[in-house]
Amino acid sequence: MWPADGSPHAPPSLELEGFLHASFAAQLPGTLAVHFDPSAKETPPRLLLIELDPTAIASDLRVESSRGGEGFPHLYRALRACEVLRWWTLEHLGGRWLLPELATSSVADDPQGTPGSP
C-alpha cells in the first residue's frame, strides 16, 4: 500500500538497484508468471496493479533490456501518488491471476480501475 504519510513510494528495488521495476500492459502476464507465481508460498494473495501517467514520469523513465532482451520500463526515482492514474487489486484463483482488461493504447480510452492513488 501507499505510505500513510503520503510520501513517495520507494520500494526496496529503488535502493538496491536504483530504479523501480515496471511492465507495459502487454508484459503483465509474463511478469506475473515469472515474479508472482500464485502457487509459491511467498506470493501474496493480492497485488496492487497501478497505471502510471507516462507524461508525469517521462523524464525519469527509461526502457531498458531485461528478461529475454525485451525492453521494460524502469523508473529512476520514487513514485508520487499524483502520478498514478488508476489502480486495481489483483487476486489469484485456481493457480492463475485474474486480470482486468487493460487499455494498451491511450489513457483517453474507456477508463477502468479506480482513479487516483491507492
Summarize the structure.
With 118 residues, the chain is an alpha+beta fold. 15% of the residues lie in helices and 29% in strands. It has a single domain (13-115), classed as ADP-ribosylation fold, CATH 3.20.170.20.
The CATH topology is ADP-ribosylation fold
CATH architecture, by name, is Alpha-Beta Barrel
User: Could you state the CATH homologous superfamily?
Assistant: Protein of unknown function DUF952
Q: How helix-rich are the residues, as a percent range?
A: 10-25%
Query: Ends: how far apart?
Result: 7 Å
Structural class estimated from helices and strands: alpha+beta
Specify the biggest β-sheet.
4 strands, antiparallel
The CATH top-level class label = Alpha Beta
H and E order: HEHEHEEEEE
* DSSP helical segment count: 3
Point out poorly predicted stretches. 105-111
In words, what does this structure look like?
The chain has 118 residues and is an alpha+beta fold. The protein has 3 helices and 7 strands. The chain is globular and about 40 Å long. 6% of the residues are buried.
